[in-house]
Each structure stands twice: as structure tokens, then as C-alpha cells.
């Protein structure tokens, strides 16, 4: 039997019992079960369609009122509605408490269930992820490629400029090349020259396949001076292949270039007869006498390029004649070079190699200039902002030759029309090539000394640098930089265009045409210390410092001082005979 309780009990079982019609609100708990059963039967009868008395129909209405109260109806309104329906205040309070408690319990149960599900899902995902990682690591260990060795590039700014001019090797089938090593003289010279000369020496060898003595059918005049083959001379004849194979097998002391300086000099030195390897002509290709002429000829070729001999004949015979004339001119400076010229002329092989080696100087300086232009145009003209903007900017720069004028403002589309060939980029490239701020490079020191002697710049130098800048700008004509070779055909067309522009300026304003190269030279000289190490500059400064000295008087003073130290006087430390006479008046200052 259930214990007897009052109507105010808060237990849920008792709360349900209190939900009785108004007529039985005062019933005791002892008859609660019977009342609950009776109410349930009545509610079932009503749901099945049996007509219930009006008194019994108040129960659903009371529940609806209580639910409305729980949903936010004000307590006063809910109390009034309960009074109208005959629900006591105690019953309404019990219902509200039960509703709130059940809601809280349901919410707590739902949150606990959600937390348990989330925790289980997280554990499952973590376990699945761990399984995948373990299986993936095992597969990676089976299929992973070997780790690459880190590479380190150590290039200075000038070397990077030189390297940017190099093009990729063509796909060819050839035997492995034999390493070419420097002679002792060349090794010593290159260590003294510096990194820029080392890079240009590599570019010098970049055109070995362009032999001036080749048949006309094998010469592409448009590619002379380019680096299409990077200096590799590849032939398909079996004789040449066997010779190369034999040379490789005989040279057992070969090492890689990276270990060249650690190799004893005796293993690097080769005879002049075997100096030509893998198609390249190096200083090892010549005797000790002729190698001096080879160096002088290459330097003289670079100077003649700066002074206007930019484009030699395109036919092989004419090209060979042009180079040989340069070699003969370079040999006139000393008797030793003249003797070397006689020795070279006596051998067709030596003469041929000497011509090829001299032409390296021209090819190297061409590629050096265009490399400097390539690395500087983007920053100087501020080519940025997306492909379409770059394309529009380059089109404006090239269309009317705006790029070569001074005081250019790309965004405003303005320039100083009274400063033709006045671009600061022209000044910068000429300074970098022929008036460097350091004395590392001496490849063009002969040219620099000649420029100082003349006191002006050759017009051809200004024009070729302008052509190189135009070529570098055209590489951005699609909106992004696309390298293409600065071939002789392309450079000649651009050079001719700007040369014609200069001729017009010279005709219309001859005084300016004389003034501008001199003014440009003065500014270059003032901004550079390139001449600090030249012999001519040192001799001139030394001569000025002692120009007013009486050298005979210096000798007389020294002679008297020596005599005084030999026979001193007891009183004064000087003898009467050795006392120096008053010095004769020297030349006035």
C-alpha cells in the first residue's frame, strides 16, 4: 500500500495524482490511485468519441492553460485563467515546478548524450587517423626517392649577370667531354683577374663551334655570337668520335673543375699540341710565346668592338680576315708579340685556333652587356602590376623610343625629349662594363685606358648599349620575361635603327652630337675609381707630384750629408772642409 501524503508533495507520482477534476480536488491521497484510474478511463472514453460530461471536459483545458503558463504567459494572467477554470493555486504551482524540473532533466540528459557521442567520435577519428598515418609512413618508406643533396650557389652579382645569358644545351648524342685545364700561366692570371673575368672566360668559350674556317654551309650568320651550343663542338664522324674517346682514356689525371685548384700543376699542364679538347680553344692550345699574343688579341678585339667594329663580315672567309687583321694590329705593341705573330702565321692550325680564340673576346663582351641590361630593366623601368600592365608599359616604352630618353616617368607617360640617349640606364651599364667601381675586372682595362686618352666615348658604345636595353625590354612584351637570344641578326637591326637616330641628331644638332659623348664620359669618370690601378694614371700622378723637384740638388745634399758623417768637427761636429755651403737657390715655386 502506498504511503499517505498530502497534496503539497513534490514527488512526481503524487503530482500526477493531484491532476484531478475540480470536483475531486479535496480528495485524500488514499483514494488517489482510484481517482487516477477513473480519470484515465474517462479520458480514453472521450478520445474514442464518447460524449463526456461538461464537468469532465475541464481537464484538457486546465492542462492547456498550465502549458501556456509555462511558455511565457504572465503569472497574473495564468492565475486568473486557473481560477476561472477551477484550478487551485497549489495545483498550478506544483505543475509549474514539475514542468521546470522535467525540462532541466531532459536538457541535462541530452547534453550528456551529446558529449558522450562527441567523445566517442573524436576517439574513433583519432584512431583512424593514426592508422592512416602508420600505413602512409610505411608506404612512403617503400616508395620515397633518395634524399637530394643540398646544393649551394656562390655567385656574385657580375657572375649572375653572366650566367643569365647562358641558354640551355641542345639535346645531342655525343661522347663524354674531356676536361680542359688551365696552364700555369692562365691559372695564375685568372686568379689575379677576379670573378667577373672568370665568368667572361667561360662565355669566351661559348662560341667555339663558330669556326671562321668552316664551310659557308655550316655557318649561320644570325647565330654568330650567340650561345646556342654553349661552346660545344659536336661532330658525327666516327674518326672524331674515336679521337675523343682516345683522348679521354689517355688523360687519367683528369679531375672535376671543382677540385681543379687542389690538383698538382704538373697534372694540369698540357702540351700545346694537345691543348684543344672537346672543341674548345683555351690558352693551353698555344705555346708559351703565342699565348701572350692570344691574350693581347682577345683584349684588342674587345676594344675594337667598343670603338665601332661591332659587326664583322658574315661569310667565313671575311670573318677570318677581319679577325686576323685584329690579331696583327694587337701584335705591334711589343717585339715579343711580333715574334709570336710570325710563329702563329707559320702554322695553319695555330693560326686557325688563334682566330677563334680572338673572336671569343667579341662574343663575351656582347653577352656581358645584354646580361647587364636584362638584370636591370625591370627595376629601372618599374615593370610591375600584372601581365597586361607590363605589356602596355613596354609597348609605350618601345613604340616611340621613350626608353632611351632621360627623366622618364612611366606612370605619367612622360620623358625629357631634350635628352635623347640620356637614360640613366645607359649610363649605368656603360659604367658597370668599362668603368667599374672596383678593380676586380681587367678584361676591358685596355679599352678604359684608351677612353681616358681620348676624353670621350665612342658613339658605337652608346648605341650598342641602347640596342641591348631595347632587346631586354622586348623580352617583356608578352607581360612576363621570356628570354630569347640576342643574335647578331637581331642586334644588328636594333643597332642600325639607333645609329640612324644618332645620324639625324648629328645632322640637325652637330654641336650636341659632339658634346653629349664627352659629357657622358666626364660623369662616368667622376663617379668611378676604375682608373686607380691603371699604369697610365699612376705615372701621370707621380710625374705631377715631383714636377718641380731639382733632382741634382737632391744628390748634392745627400753627398754633403754623407761627408759630414765621416769627418765630424770637435766643436760643431763638422769640419771646415766638409761644412756644407749654403744651398744654391733652386727654381722658384
Automatic annotation (TrEMBL):
Biological classification of the source: Eukaryota, Fungi, Dikarya, Basidiomycota, Agaricomycotina
Biased composition (Low complexity): 1-13, 21-52, 252-280
Spans annotated as Disordered: 1-61, 127-281, 562-589
Composition bias, Pro residues: 580-589
Organism for this UniProt entry: Hebeloma cylindrosporum
Protein name as it appears in the record: DUF6532 domain-containing protein
Residues in coiled coil: none
Compositional bias ranges of the Acidic residues kind: 128-144, 176-187
InterPro entries, alphabetized: DUF6532
Signal peptide extent: none
Amino acid at each position: 500500500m502506498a504511503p499517505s501524503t498530502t497534496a503539497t508533495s513534490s514527488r512526481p507520482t503524487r503530482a500526477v495524482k493531484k491532476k484531478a477534476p475540480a470536483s475531486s480536488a479535496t480528495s485524500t491521497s488514499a483514494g488517489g490511485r482510484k481517482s487516477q484510474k477513473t480519470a484515465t478511463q474517462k479520458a480514453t472514453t472521450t478520445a474514442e468519441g464518447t460524449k463526456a460530461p461538461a464537468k469532465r471536459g475541464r481537464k484538457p483545458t486546465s492542462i492547456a492553460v498550465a502549458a501556456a503558463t509555462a511558455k511565457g504567459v504572465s503569472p497574473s494572467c495564468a492565475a486568473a485563467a486557473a481560477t476561472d477554470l477551477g484550478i487551485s493555486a497549489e495545483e498550478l504551482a506544483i505543475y509549474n515546478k514539475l514542468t521546470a524540473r522535467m525540462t532541466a532533466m531532459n536538457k541535462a540528459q541530452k547534453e550528456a548524450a551529446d558529449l558522450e557521442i562527441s567523445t566517442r567520435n573524436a576517439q574513433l577519428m583519432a584512431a583512424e587517423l593514426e592508422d592512416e598515418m602508420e600505413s602512409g609512413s610505411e608506404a612512403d618508406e617503400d616508395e620515397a626517392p633518395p634524399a637530394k643533396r643540398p646544393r649551394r650557389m656562390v655567385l656574385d652579382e657580375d657572375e649572375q649577370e653572366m650566367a643569365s645569358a647562358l641558354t640551355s644545351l641542345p639535346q645531342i648524342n655525343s661522347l663524354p667531354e674531356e676536361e680542359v685545364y688551365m696552364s700555369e700561366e692562365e691559372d695564375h692570371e685568372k686568379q689575379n683577374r677576379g670573378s667577373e673575368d672568370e665568368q667572361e672566360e667561360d662565355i669566351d668559350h661559348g662560341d667555339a663551334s663558330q669556326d671562321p674556317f668552316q664551310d659557308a654551309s655550316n655557318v649561320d650568320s644570325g647565330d654568330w655570337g650567340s650561345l646556342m651550343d654553349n661552346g660545344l663542338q659536336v661532330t658525327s664522324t666516327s674518326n672524331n668520335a674515336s679521337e675523343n674517346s682516345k683522348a679521354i682514356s689517355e688523360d687519367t689525371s683528369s679531375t672535376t673543375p671543382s677540385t681543379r685548384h687542389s690538383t698538382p700543376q704538373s697534372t694540369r699542364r698540357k702540351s700545346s699540341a694537345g691543348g684543344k679538347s672537346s672543341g674548345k680553344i683555351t690558352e693551353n692550345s698555344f705555346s708559351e710565346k703565342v699565348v701572350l699574343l692570344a691574350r693581347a688579341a682577345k683584349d684588342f678585339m674587345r676594344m675594337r668592338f667598343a670603338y665601332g667594329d661591332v659587326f664583322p663580315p658574315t661569310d667565313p672567309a671575311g670573318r677570318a680576315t677581319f679577325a686576323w687583321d685584329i690579331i696583327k694590329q694587337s701584335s705591334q705593341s711589343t717585339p715579343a708579340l711580333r715574334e709570336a705573330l710570325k710563329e702563329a702565321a707559320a702554322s695553319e692550325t695555330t693560326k686557325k685556333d688563334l682566330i677563334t680564340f680572338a673572336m671569343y673576346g667579341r662574343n663575351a663582351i656582347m653577352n656581358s652587356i645584354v646580361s647587364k641590361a636584362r638584370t636591370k630593366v625591370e627595376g629601372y623601368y618599374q615593370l610591375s602590376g600584372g601581365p597586361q600592365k607590363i605589356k602596355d608599359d613596354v609597348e609605350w616604352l618601345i613604340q616611340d623610343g621613350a626608353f632611351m630618353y632621360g627623366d622618364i616617368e612611366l606612370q605619367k607617360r612622360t620623358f625629357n625629349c631634350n635628352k635623347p640617349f640620356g637614360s640613366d640606364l645607359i649610363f649605368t651599364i656603360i659604367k658597370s662594363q668599362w668603368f667599374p667601381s672596383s678593380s676586380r675586372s681587367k678584361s676591358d682595362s685596355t679599352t678604359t685606358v684608351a677612353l681616358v686618352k681620348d676624353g670621350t666615348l665612342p658613339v658605337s658604345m652608346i648605341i650598342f648599349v641602347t640596342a641591348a636595353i631595347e632587346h631586354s625590354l622586348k623580352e617583356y612584351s608578352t607581360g612576363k620575361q621570356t628570354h630569347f637570344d640576342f643574335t647578331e641578326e637581331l642586334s644588328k637591326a636594333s643597332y642600325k635603327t639607333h645609329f640612324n637616330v644618332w645620324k639625324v641628331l648629328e645632322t640637325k644638332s652637330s654641336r650636341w652630337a659632339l658634346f653629349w659623348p664627352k659629357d657622358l664620359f666626364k660623369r662616368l669618370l667622376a663617379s668611378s675609381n676604375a682608373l686607380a690601378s691603371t699604369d697610365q694614371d699612376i705615372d701621370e700622378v707621380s710625374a705631377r707630384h715631383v714636377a718641380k723637384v731639382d733632382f741634382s740638388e737632391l744628390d748634392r745634399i745627400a753627398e754633403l750629408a754623407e761627408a759630414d758623417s765621416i769627418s765630424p768637427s770637435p766643436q760643431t761636429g763638422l769640419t771646415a772642409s766638409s761644412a756644407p755651403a749654403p744651398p744654391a737657390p733652386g727654381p722658384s715655386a
